[in-house]
Amino acid sequence: MTDPGAVDGTSGGSEEHRAGWFELFFDLVFVVTVSVLAHGLHGNPGPAEFGKFLVLFFPAWWAWVNLTVMVNLFGSASPRVQGMLLAAMPALGLMAAASPAGLEERAWAYALGAAWVRLALFLIWFRHARRPGSPLPLWRPLLYCLVPAALWAVSAALPGAWRFAVWGVAIALEMALLAIRAGLGTAPYERMSVEHLVERIGLFVVIVLGESVFTVVATFEEHFTAASGVTALFSFVVAAELAMIFFVWGTGNAERGLSRAQSGRATQVMRDTVMYLPFVLVCGITVIAAALGTAVAEPHHVLPAGAGWALCGGVLAFYSANAAISTRYGDGLRNVLRWYVPCLVLTPGMLLPAALLLPSWGAVACAAALVFLLAKLSRWHTRSRAAAAG
Predict the structure, then answer these.
(1) Which backbone phi and psi does 302 adopt, to 5 degrees?
(2) Strand ranges (DSSP E) for 194-285?
(3) What is the pLDDT of residue 134?
(4) Alpha-carbon torsion 99, 103, 108, 110, what sign?
(5) How far is CA 243 from the centre of its chain?
(6) What is the pLDDT of residue 384?
(7) How far apart are CA 271 and CA 255, in angstroms?
(8) What is the pLDDT of residue 183?
(9) CA 336 – CA 194 distance, rounded (Å)
(10) In whole angstroms, how far apart are CA 268 and each of 5, 70, 176, 264, 331?
(11) Residues 6+ apart with CB under 8 A from 306
C-alpha cells in the first residue's frame, strides 16, 4: 500500500509533526480489530489458532503502518488525506468484523476490505505521482497499491487454498517493492518526521496494552473471587512493566535510532524498525493478553497448554523484537545481550515450567517476576551506558 514515494514538501523530517485528532479517531477501528483477533486466542489455542491470528493480523497491521507512513509524509490536515482515512475506516471495520471467520465463510469479506484499503491509498499516491516534476514513477503506486487491490478483490471469488495463495502473492509484491527501491531516492525517508513515527507506533502499542488491561479487568468482573483478584493483580504488573519498558526505554531509544538512521540515510533500518519489527512486538503483547485473561478466569487450574505457550512465546516475542530493533539502531551486540540472554534463559528455564506445572496464579506471578527482573536489567544497563557516555 503506502509506498514511500516522493513528497512535495507537505511534511519534513526537520519539522515537528505530532499525531492529530483525526489520526486518533482513525485508530478507534484498530481497538476493535485487536480485541476481535485477541479473543480467538483465549482458552487453549493451538497451532491453527495462532496461525489464523498471524494471517489475519498482519494485513491489518500492514494497512495501519502504510497509512501511518502516508500521513507522516503528507500530514492529516489535508481534506484529501482526511477523506482517504474516513474512506479506509469502514474497510478496516469490515476486516475486523470478518476476522472471527476470516479464514472460513467470511474470507471473501476480509479480502474485499483489504482491497478497499489499498484502493483508497492508490488514489492518494497516484495523484502525487502524476504531478509535474514528481520523481515518483507512475508504475510504483500502480504496482504497490492498485495491483494488490485487484489481487485481494479477485481472491474473494476464489475457493479455499487458492484464495490464501493470492493473499500471499499480494503481500509479497508489496514487500518486494519496499526492498527493491527502483525509481526512488532517499528523499522520502529524509522527509519523514521521526517524532511522528515514534508517537504513532507508541499509540498502537497503547491500543494493544489496553487490550491486556481490558481483558484482565473484564475477566475479573466475570470471575469475582479472591484468587482471580490476585491473578489480575499479577497480570496488571506484567502489563505495567511491559509498558514501562516500551515507553521509558524503548521510545527514547527508537527516536535516537531513527534519527541516526535518517541522518545516515539508512533507509532499510527505518523500514525494518517501523514497518516489520514492531509487528512482532505487538503480537507478543497480544498473545500475552490472551494468556492473562485465561489465567484470571481459572486461577486454581494449571494453564491450558496453549495459554502457557502463549504466555512464554509472547514474552520471547516482545523481548526478541526489542533486541532486534536495538541492534538495527546500532546498539552494541554485547550491550543488547546483557539483558536479552537472561530472557532467553529464564523464559524456558523458569516461566515455561511454571506455566505447565503451577496453578495459573503462580504462573502469572512468575511472569510478573520475570518481566520485573528484565525491566530492572534493561534500566540498569541504560543508566550505565548513559553514565559512561557522560
Answers:
(1) -65, 140
(2) none
(3) 77
(4) positive
(5) 14
(6) 55
(7) 14
(8) 55
(9) 23
(10) 15, 17, 13, 11, 16
(11) 41, 43, 44, 45, 46, 49, 50
Q: How far apart are CA 116 and CA 170, in angstroms?
A: 14
C-alpha distances in Å from residue 301, one per residue of 221, 267, 309: 18, 49, 15
Which grid coordinates are listed for 10?
Answer: 507537505
Q: Are 149 and 115 in contact (CB under 8 A)?
A: yes
Q: How many helices (H) and strands (E) does the chain have?
A: 17, 0
> Which residues are registered as beta bridge partners of 359?
302
| 360-389 helix and 305-328 helix, angle to the nearest 10 degrees | 10
The burial class, CB within 10 Å (0-12 / 13-18 / 19+), for 16 is: exposed
Compute the CA torsion angle 296, 317, 249, 38 (nearest 10 deg).
Answer: -40
C-alpha cell at 16: 515537528
Entry pTM:
0.89
pLDDT value at position 377? 79
- Mean pLDDT per 10-residue segment, the chain (390 residues): 42 55 85 89 94 93 91 82 87 91 90 94 87 83 94 94 94 90 64 90 92 94 96 96 88 88 87 94 96 96 96 96 92 87 95 96 97 82 53
Q: Which of 170, 35, 162, 40 is nearest to 101 (CA)?
A: 40
Instruction: Let me know how long the chain is.
Output: 390
Q: What phi and psi, each to the nearest 5 degrees, are found at residue 185? A: -105, -155
Q: Which three cell numbers stand for residue 225?
A: 473471587
Which secondary structure element, helix H or strand E, spans residue 194, and what is its range? helix 194-222
CA atoms within 13 A on the CB side of 390: 6
Task: Please check whether residue 45 is in contact with residue 290, taking contact to mean a CB–CB distance below 8 angstroms.
Answer: yes
Q: Cα–Cα distance between 287 and 359 in angstroms, integer? A: 19
What is the maximum alpha-carbon separation in the chain?
Answer: 68
Rounding to the nearest 10 degrees, give the CA dihedral for residues 316, 27, 110, 3. -80
Per-residue buried b or exposed e for 196-218, using 16+ beta carbons within 10 Å of the residue's own CB = bbbbbbbebbebbbbbbbbbbee
Q: Which residues, other chains included, contact 244 with Cβ-Cβ below 8 Å and sequence gap of 6+? A: 375
Distance of CA 104 to the CA centre of its chain: 24
**What grid cell was written down for 135?**
520523481
CA 272 centroid distance within chain: 12
Burial class (CB in 10 A: 0-12, 13-18, 19+), 280: middle
